[in-house]
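Encode chain A's predicted structure.
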Amino acid sequence: MEYHNPVLLKESVDGLNINPDGVYVDVTFGGGGHSKEILSRLSEKGKLFAFDQDEDALKNAIDDKRFTLIHENFRYIKRFLRFYGIKKVDGVLGDFGVSSHQFDVPDRGFSIRFDGDLDMRMSTKMKTSAYDVVNFHTEEALRKMFSVYGELTNAKAIAETIIGARETPIKTVEDLKTVLDKFLPQHAEHKVLAKIFQAIRIEVNEELLVIEEFLLQTTDLLDKNGRISLISYHSLEDRLVKRFIRNGMFEGEPEKDFFGNFSVPFKKVGKLVIPSAAEIKVNNRARSAKLRIAKRL
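Encoded structure for chain A:
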């Protein structure tokens, strides 16, 4: 099964500052590239747990007694690590967004390049698909989704057009493109479609809520000086990570301690890391990646 090169591989794993005997978590296993690199730096005593809710990713499981692949959404990280007797870890790596494999399989419905059913579920166990969102969301829910998750200025008009076209079910990627054709200028068709599809995908998979729930759990999960190394692909994800590292929360300001200093759980490590031109040349998916690293205080 073809999974493309892991993004910012060396930089993200370096960011974990690995203790060879430590316990680490890769919350976005995918093709296993980041996990293999972590394992290569662990001793016989080290442990690596990985999460992936996508059934396809299970075929990439690594045969190594130090490795455990958990077939679940990483929003439940503490619950499932506790099942394995793990209460504290030394580092957590996350590579958010959609895997290259998911984009490259037409019948998953993630890509604007192929026709396929409107699905976009990262796990087939999920009840709501892109078909359900497009065909049954209210006009207001669609408007909000395209405005917030797609950052589209004409979200209201797009929502109205979808509502007006529902006499016949909108079943496939091509159906949706046909319905929204007037919003797709020739010079920027792919750019606009990418935003529309991003909005629907985030809604289907609750992607931003999942990241928030996950990040809040890392405060308890990480040992002192433990690291988080997190790769985002669009501004909505990156904003959550940046705010969490800075404030330990997503809204408002943290409380101050007795001395008037902000009391926060993490301290950023280094500066924002982006891929080199050489990496982008061999792996186009890396072009929008941003890596942020922080350690538990």
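Residues 20 and 51 are 20 Å apart (CA to CA).
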